[in-house]
């Protein structure tokens, strides 16, 4: 039985005692309707048990440091391997994480540059050489005679400890003073240092003055310091101080120094020297983040049509200080010849400059106090930009810091220009023939495909080749895996927080292949998300390669190609929620196609399909939204139009610029103009046509809440209406209960024993925490008195436990509640419980809850909806329902823009904007636009080639639709 994975009696969530027999070392696809139980079986049962068994095989000491998994509700699992989960929810949001760090490529690059890189002086560019003690002495004697200085030997650099023994040892050796953390102390009375803090300690070797007569003493002192501090000596000049009143220092190294005498601080190059997460390599200005916050005038004055009196200057328009700042601006106006009732746009340029940047002399402020008396005074006019910067630096309140940051945008650090590293480290390079020499930061800025080409072309001498050969092999191997999963357009410096869920998942997939593990069970959640059909083949080859290593892969997937290439397919259904949780099919692809009971098989075999529309809405060129001069990231200064009143699909290969165009530019501008947001849009010239819209609705896949107290009922607002309904019952009125009584989040009606959670957590130390039903309320969340109030025989707790479909029928007579619930059913969420905790919802489910929340609002016919891959996690049948809902929105006169790879959605769109032609630097233009039939006829369009197969039209040369105007890229 070692070649089989056997599951018996799986009952997690909606699973109905599932029995399953799967082949090991195979590519297995779990498919079925959304909510049918795929994730419950794959992740919450099989992965959870594999992980739990592995962790329990470790010692009790090790287990207390690891996240423990609950034992799933299953009778028996045999043939289970250690399990690794690769999902889309755990994207790293740390600003210090990049593609290079999470794939470990950057670790190997640091090693490569430390061992084979050539250091140069960041000032003159000369190659850095080692300095002898005599050269150091000559440089000191070349200074102006009479300058006083200390000769210091740095013996401890940023290390934790008390160092009492070191002080005793130095005292015994005859030294009398040390400098600790910048302060000189006598060794007769050394400082008491905190053990858990990092310290810098330098021995004061000598105190000297620059003069030729002291050459021998200086030489002896320098040699002593070099011996004491392992080749480094620091000179402190107490009479020469910087702007912070710190004495100037000059560092010399016996190991590396500039031949032209430029002062620099480079010790021997180590891998940590190239880390922006270490003080040895990080830029001191931005501490390795590569960015700093700067006040943005566009965010300070969001609406130029407003006057100063109406609050045109946003930071000075609210709160008790608004009147004070309006007086100040009125005083400035008297001096510069403007008044506060003039719109910002019409103010003279010198007036706008003075308000933003400040005035160099005092302004005369006049005002009437509450008694009607005129008062006046003179005051400095700081300017709103300097005011915000100062307040940001001074405040200790997180709330105020968040407010001030709302007027700022991230700009590249002016010192390191966004590279995160010290100038000395950026001056270390590797040469690659005619490709030139590049620093580690420049290599990380290249696309992954260009990075691989550069490293292949490196020109290394025999010594460097011997040192770096193995390191290069590891780097090329990892870059190759990233190329295999379709991520050639990313750069190693790309921040992890900016990756989509699909990109992050494929990066982790590539990392796992690079680890070379054998005999592991991998459980993946829709790895094809965000991937164009063109790149699907490479992803499937990557999965089969992982299987060929001797691993078992369970992939939760709806993609037709992936299902067709699987060794074994498990179709779970037949419906969703309570109507699912059973095995409809377990076998090969051909057997699935022939299975009459499988809705998946029906769509794959062609018995069911999503029809291509016979008539499309006609795009009106007079009613369109146009982004002019889009040039953020890889967009090439393009103009793109989106027709209003139709369904538009934005397509293109991964990295072609879809999200940058739609999310970073268009959606941000619309949010600011229509919804009063303060977002920073990507670089562009302008957006035309906004006056034809009155509201923006964005629907993405971020969670609807991060705590179990958030659920579909609370998010959509229907719970407020249900609580009001319960408060209106006779029993509630007799008892004087208000709607708040029926909330499990506040005191009064909730069970206080479990504070409304329904469960009690029992900590088990090195075993998993156990959650048991609350003994007082038995999991109902409410106290006994609240549960005595019934509506149509149901308590508030029983209503929350209903499926949305069941609740929709229950509340049918109450139109205000029924309308909310009907929209949730319409988007395919009838199987979800009304009170289901938000963290248990998938990304696709969360997106549909948001969509339903917007759908139940009254349509104005002038709303624009922007959806980012709405088909994520959806089965073919769910997509059909979603398209029906989306088309319903458009039929009411609204505009819908979707970013999508799914051909079923693309073929039903009225208009397509296809980006490309490739990803990254090779993308950023509009390859084709028009109806699906128009795009299918454009041979340059990858989307068109796949579209031609489904719209019944072959790809033939034809008149190319008007593409976004391409112009020279401008900054």
TrEMBL record:
Plastid as UniProt keyword: no
Molecular function as annotated in GO: ATP binding; ATP hydrolysis activity; DNA binding; excinuclease ABC activity; zinc ion binding
Protein's UniProt keywords contain DNA-binding: yes
Pfam family, one: UvrA_DNA-bind
NCBIfam families: PRK00349.1, uvra
Subunit structure: Forms a heterotetramer with UvrB during the search for lesions.
UniProt-recorded name of the protein: UvrABC system protein A
